[in-house]
Design brief:
By secondary structure, the chain is mostly beta strands. The chain contains 1 helix and 3 strands.
């Protein structure tokens, strides 16, 4: 809840990009994660 950002699809629609940062905890240091979908 209130964690990271809303997921975003990659242009090819195969990967979801999101961040795992919580602003109040980590400030501007956000790790960008990419979740690949299984077929």
């Amino acid at each position: 809840e209130g964690r990271g950002t809303a997921p975003r699809w990659s242009p090819d629609g195969k990967v979801i990009y999101f961040t795992n940062c919580v602003e109040k905890d980590y400030g501007a240091d956000c790790e960008i994660l990419a979740a690949k979908l299984s077929p």
